[in-house]
Amino acid sequence: MRPAWLGLCGLRLKIALLILFTSGLVFGLSLTAVSQGYASWDAQSVKLDNGLISRQVVVRNDSIMTQELHLTNEVSNFIAAEKTTQSLEFSLFANGKSLDGGSGWKLLSVKPATDGEGGTGAVMDILGIKAAAGLELKVSYYLFPKLPVIRKEIEVLNVSRSELRLEALLSEKLVLDLNFVESACFTNYGRQKHLGNCVGNWDDPLLAIHNYHYSRGLLVGNEAPGVLKHVDYNVKIK
After folding, report:
1. In whole angstroms, what is the distance from residue 185 CA to residue 14 CA?
2. Residue 166 belongs to what domain range?
3. How many CB atoms lie within 10 A of CB 192?
4. What is the DSSP letter of 168?
5. What is the 3-state secondary structure (H, E, C) of 46-75?
């Protein structure tokens, strides 16, 4: 049984999404362990935990990826264990070149962050190297009191000396440990049920994925405006 893919996109330089769950030395930077609010971090990872939901994002081998994603009181990981190196956070096209969290990134800094809506967490500032040279991303994660919710926001900065064409930004790219045969996806405000895979559009500010066997799943909200809104589940595996 293979895991399923979840992707969200919108053509914006700054894009946010919401996920609600239902059941060393780096580039000359030396960070000691820091904890503030719902976030803690060191030189290679950020851990977010509000007592209900937990997520760990790591920067390793010039890649950024989500290693753990689960409800705090459960040990089961929403990220497929054998595919953790493929949950590469995001993807986009820059001047026609495909990039994702594995294209070459160095962690510049981690700072506390708030979103003005009651969410607190951390923002990871990462600089593109190798294939991703010329880009700098600020990836923010926010958690909320007494809610199993994670909000994510990506700001894309062009730090090259030339114009850059950005397309097809997937602000979240995860490999879920939800067997697609036992799962269903609900679109169009929960009125349409899809088996196997589904692709959302401008009518899907919220998409529901539910696994019947384990009675767990997640709701994925996309804050991209209008026709830029896109969510897909189990559509493409690279």
Report:
1. 26
2. 4-233
3. 13
4. E
5. EEEECCCEEEEEEEECCEEEEEEEEECCCC
Domain count, the chain: 1
Each residue's pLDDT, cut to its tens digit, for the chain (238 residues) gives 444 544 444 333 444 455 565 553 333 444 556 777 899 999 899 999 999 999 999 999 999 999 888 887 776 788 866 655 678 899 999 999 999 999 999 999 999 999 988 999 999 999 999 999 999 999 999 999 999 999 999 999 999 989 989 988 888 888 888 888 889 999 988 899 999 888 888 888 888 998 888 888 888 888 888 777 788 888 764 4
111 membership: H or E segment, kind and range: strand 105-114
Q: Does residue 238 lie within any of the structural domains? A: no
- CA dihedral over 79, 85, 88, 91, signed as positive or negative: negative
Specify if 31 maps to a domain.
yes
Structure tokens at 87: 């949950």
